[in-house]
Every structure is written in C-alpha cells, then in structure tokens.
UniProtKB/TrEMBL annotation:
Family: Belongs to the trans-sulfuration enzymes family.
Name under which the protein is recorded: Cystathionine beta-lyase
PANTHER family in alphabetical order: CYSTATHIONINE BETA-LYASE-RELATED
Higher taxonomy: Bacteria, Pseudomonadati, Pseudomonadota, Betaproteobacteria, Burkholderiales
Gene assigned in the entry: metC_3
CDD domains for the chain: CGS_like
Xref: InterPro entries: Cys/Met-Metab_PyrdxlP-dep_enz, Cys_b_lyase_bac, Cys_met_metab_PP, PyrdxlP-dep_Trfase, PyrdxlP-dep_Trfase_major, PyrdxlP-dep_Trfase_small
This enzyme's EC code(s): 4.4.1.13
Length: 407
C-alpha cells in the first residue's frame, strides 16, 4: 500500500527536501537517487526502442541514449522545477553554457536582443566572439526608467536580464519588464543565480526563462560546475529542447548527484549566508576607510525598495568601496585577508574576496567611480571571525599606506 497522497500546498523548503525522491520498488526505496552512470540505454526489444523514440518525439523527457541523462538527471530537474516553477529544466555543463544555450535556442541571424548593463561580464564575450558572427545584434541598457522599452526594435526577439547584478547588485523591476516584453511579444529570460530560486522566482513574476549557474548556491559546496535553463511554457521549452539536443549538452550523473545533494540544504545555507553577510555589511558601513556598501538588504542600498518588494531574503554577496584607494590598495587588503580566499565565483560554504577590475564596472550606469571595489562572498564561518579578519586586513592596509606616505 502506498500512503495516501494529499493536496496540502507545501512551502518551498518542504518541496526542496522531497522533490526527485526515488519511487518505491517492491515496497522499498532509498532516500537518495542512485548515481546512474551509463553512456547508452538498453532496450528490451526493437518494439520497446520504437516506443521510447515515439514518446521522445511527442515531447516526453525520456532517455533513449546516455546523452539524454538518467534517473539522476531527472531527479535534479525535478528539484530545480520545485525551486523555480516552470514546465521543464535543462541541465548544462556550466552557468555560462546555460546563458549561451538560451541565446542560441531563441535567436536567429538578423535578430536583436536587449541585455541589461549590469550583466555577468562573459555575456559580453559571448556577444563579441559568437553572436556578432552569427548576425545577432545586442544592445545594453540600464533597465529601470523606460530606457528598455525605448531600445526595442522591430526585430527584438529577446530581453535578457540579471537581477540583482553580481558586482553591485542592481535590481531590475522584473514585473515591469515582463509587461513590456509581453506588450511587444518578446521572450524574457533572466539570470536568477543571485536568488537561486529560493529568494526570488522570476517565472512567477512573468519571465519566460530562468537561467541558473547551479555552480553557485544550488550545488553550494564549490565542488561542481553546472548550469540549468528553466522554461515557463511548453512553447519556449520546445525551442530550448531542440537546441539543447543538437548542441549535445549533457552533464555527468555524479555532478547531477552533487547538485541534488547540495540543493537539499539550500534554504538553511542561504539563511545563514544572509545572517553573516548582514553583520559584515553593517560592520563595513561603520568603518571610516569604507565608502558605499552594496547589499540589497541594507535600507540605504539603491535597490532596497525593489528587493523588499520582490525578494524573500538576501545571499552572502557584499561589495564595498575602499575610500580614496586605487586598485593596488584594494589588492593589499585582499592579500591581507586570511579567511577570505582570493578567488572568483561564490555560493559555496566558504568566504571569498575579489578585487573588482574597474573595466568590469565602467559599463554599469549605477557606478559612480568613487574608488576601488572589493566583492566579498560571506561564507558560513563564524561572523565574528570574519569581521575580525576584515578588521585586521583594513588596519594592515592603512598601516602600509602610512608607511608609504612616511617614505
Ligand atoms: C558564475 C555566474 C555565471 C556562470 O556560471 P558558471 O557555472 O561559472 O559558468 C552566470 N551568471 C552569473 C550571475 C554568475 O554569477
């Protein structure tokens, strides 16, 4: 006997624990989905093979070959659908390949795409190195005061946003952008890596596609590269499925398993990242050598009102301006930190620091060029220890500066 199913609506934290659980076979089931490693699929007969092909052709997400993934992949897809909503999730080898897949699936030569100006920097490389060659034109806009709608042309087919941005956390009014997109019959896709499905659900706000670097908070342990594209409607899913198939995009079951293992604890990790990051951000605001602190949960952050309207929380990313400092001084602070490792990426359990290259900010309309910027990923260490580390690093940089002035 199976236990009675019920229709009680469940909170996200509950659904993320149970999504993709393996089914009972002969009355028992493991808690975790097996890591099913296979490069191909055996069929009991040619008739069975034809039946699977027919089901695939009809749009069903069923594997007739290893590239289509296994039960491990299906379980992760289910977990991502629980997070983001939507009808279909596509797994790809990295967050960047999730972005590239979205562009290649939805655009053709002669098409125009609008991208928000605080976009993840490698998107501009995708534009320069591939999209231009394919005859696809990109416009970058500051999205929040009618400029986006003014940039629409007859052949605009896609609006691609990222909200918040991943350096200064500029927030888009996604509901307003979705209304504009719908009015002009344009597909709206958004990079939801900052919120990772847990702090914001863009498909509910009207986006057609949500893109995730699952490398970051979804996997959460800095041990896997992974991306996902989640489609809100069958119409968009069909277009993405075709490109996903012919581009041969697939991921290994071990990586799928690691992401699934990570996603179970996403809500508790995120809550702790927010607690630690809030303490660090508030402490930074009180330091004389620190200028603006960027963290949407701070009441004086430029994006705070929109963040409060749309997001259920914040993550571990905090950026700050080192007052009257150049790149060299910022690098001295990074070098002096002991608990914050110097490195790109974020979303793992550990703290990281990056000195943001000025050319990465020069295209952001909201950047006022007031000093050097450091980006912290505040990890799950004890917040007092992280603050003590920042204190000694800022002090160290100050002492080095005084020595330099003194000759
Ligand atoms: C890291 C990141 C990506 C790319 O993800 P990878 O898995 O590193 O390729 C895409 N978008 C955002 C916002 C990111 O932070």
């Amino acid at each position: 006997m199976t236990r009675a199913s019920h229709n009680v609506p469940e909170a996200l934290a509950t659904r993320i624990i149970h999504a993709g659980s393996p089914p009972f076979v002969d009355g028992t089931a493991p808690v975790n989905v097996p890591v099913e490693r296979t490069s191909t699929v055996r069929h009991a007969s040619t008739a069975a093979l034809h039946a699977v092909h027919a089901r695939r052709k009809a749009g069903e997400n069923i594997a007739s070959y290893g590239r289509h993934g296994s039960q491990t992949h299906r379980a992760l897809e289910d977990a991502l659908l629980a997070l983001e909503g939507g009808v279909r999730a596509f797994l790809v080898p990295s967050g960047l390949s999730a972005i590239s897949l979205t562009f290649l699936a939805l655009l053709s030569p002669g098409d125009h795409v609008i991208v928000t100006d605080s976009i993840y920097a490698p998107v501009r490389r995708l534009d320069a190195l591939l999209l231009q060659r394919l005859g696809i034109e990109v416009s970058y806009v500051e999205p929040n005061d009618g400029r986006l709608e003014a940039a629409i042309r007859p052949h605009t087919r896609l609006i691609f946003t990222e909200s918040p941005g991943s350096l200064l956390y500029e927030i888009c009014d996604l509901e307003a952008i979705a209304r504009v997109a719908r009015r002009h019959d344009i597909v709206l896709a958004t990079d939801n890596t900052w919120a990772s499905g847990i702090l914001f659900r863009p498909l509910e706000a009207g986006a057609d596609v949500s893109v995730l670097a699952a490398t970051k908070y979804v996997a959460g342990h800095s041990d896997v590269m992974l991306g996902a594209v989640i489609a809100r409607t069958e119409a968009v899913a069909t277009r993405i499925a075709a490109a996903h198939d012919v581009l041969g995009l697939t991921i290994g079951p071990d990586d799928a398993y690691l992401a699934l293992r990570g996603v179970r604890t996403l809500p508790v990790r995120m809550a702790q990242h927010q607690r630690n990051a809030t303490r660090v951000a508030q402490w930074l605001q009180a330091q004389p050598g620190v200028g603006q602190v960027f963290y949407p949960a701070l009441p004086d952050d430029p994006g705070h009102a929109l963040w409060k309207r749309d997001f259920s929380g914040a993550n571990g990313l905090v950026s700050f301006v080192l007052k009257d400092a150049d790149q060299y001084a910022a690098e001295r602070v990074a070098d002096a930190l002991r608990l914050f490792a110097i490195g790109a990426s974020w979303g793992g359990y550990e703290s990281l620091v990056t000195v943001v290259a000025p050319e990465r900010l020069s295209d952001h309309a909201q950047w006022n060029r007031s000093g050097a910027v450091l980006r912290l990923h505040v990890g799950l260490e004890d917040a007092d220890d992280l603050i003590a580390d920042l204190e000694q690093a800022l002090q160290h940089a100050r002492v080095a500066e005084l020595h330099a002035i003194g000759g």
